[in-house]
From TrEMBL:
Keywords: Hydrolase, Protease, Thiol protease. Transmembrane segments: none annotated. The keyword Ribonucleoprotein does not apply. Signal peptide: none annotated. Residues 1-151 form the NlpC/P60 domain. Belongs to the peptidase C40 family. It comes from the Bacteria. The lineage of its organism: Bacteria, Bacillati, Bacillota, Bacilli, Lactobacillales. This is Peptidoglycan amidohydrolase family protein. InterPro entries: NLP_P60_dom, Papain-like_cys_pep_sf, Phage_lysin.
């Protein structure tokens, strides 16, 4: 048996494009215009080449079906390095039937595509933000270990790894609005200030109780987020882009230092680290953090 992760994910995109609505009482797979989380994932994996189980699976029965057909459990309520094609299942085995569980497919390291009640259909969201907003349920993750077909490409497959933006050095990350109706932006009192349009990107300066602060609060289920891992201390692989016309490196991370090397506006530099106060970025010499942004 060969299996195509890309064909499975593309099936989910087709469900989203066709506007299926969420229901646990219809076909559950999208054939009647409705689907639920497990029915959508089961149908998507079938579209990718997985064998029939004889019936539309739920989150309880999906575990054994996956394990019997070339999938490995790579997480049991434990950290793992998620990758495209991983299937997650929330809810402890024995307690995840019906509304007690949830499932979907990773489209990259951070983001998932899933059919859910909150969006009344298929949406793309940051996994960790959505998981936190749902109360951090017990979870499992599975990865296909058998033979895979090569990706033939599909215009409906939105590659979120190609979404790029700039953010201040100390920012939590960047959020792209994925709710077709936009995202409500509210203040600390809960008053809605406006709606942020679909497809726009916003710098996330803080996260609190699962909510994202982008100059006002938004629901993480309305967006997909790229996290600035450097803000948590891991600058490996991070690139800074010069945004000022007068940026220079200097020997020490403090004010009033002599400039050593001129950094042209728009030039890109690998980040080695950031000063303790967050005011200077080390790129082999220190540069004022206010004159560069991090690429996300």
């Amino acid at each position: 048996m060969s299996f195509s992760i890309d064909s499975a994910i593309n099936y989910m995109y087709q469900l989203q494009k066709s506007g299926v609505t969420y229901s646990m009482d219809g076909s559950r797979t999208g054939t009647d215009g409705t689907a639920d989380c497990s029915g959508a994932v089961y149908a998507a994996l079938r579209a990718g080449g997985m064998p029939s189980a004889g019936w539309v699976l739920n989150t309880e029965s999906m575990h054994n079906w996956l394990l019997a057909n070339g999938w490995q459990r790579v997480a049991d309520n434990s950290d793992w390095d998620a990758q495209r094609g991983d299937v997650f299942i929330w809810g402890k085995i024995g307690d995840s039937a019906g509304a007690g569980g949830h499932t979907g497919i990773f489209i990259d390291h951070d983001n998932i595509i899933h059919c859910n009640y909150a969006h009344n259909g298929v949406s793309i969201n940051n996994h960790d933000a959505y998981w936190a907003a749902d109360g951090c349920p017990y979870f499992y993750a599975y990865r296909y270990a058998g033979a895979q077909e090569a990706d033939q490409g599909d215009d409906t497959d939105m590659d979120l790894s190609k979404l790029t933006s700039l953010a201040p050095v100390t920012a939590y990350g960047v959020a792209w609005i994925t709710n077709p109706n936009g995202a409500a932006l509210w203040d600390n009192t809960g008053k809605v200030l406006k709606r942020l349009p679909y497809g726009t990107s916003w710098v996330v300066v803080d996260v609190n109780k699962g909510r994202l602060n982008v100059g006002g609060w938004i629901d993480p289920t309305d967006a997909v987020v790229k996290i600035n891992k450097g803000a948590a201390g891991d600058w490996s692989g991070t690139v800074a882009r010069v945004t000022a016309d007068d940026a220079y490196t200097q020997a020490q991370p403090k004010p009033n230092q002599a400039g050593i090397q001129y950094l042209p506006k728009g030039s890109r530099w690998k980040v080695v680290g950031v000063s303790k106060d967050g005011n200077y970025v080390n790129i082999g010499g220190y540069v004022d953090a206010g004159k560069v942004n991090i690429e996300l």
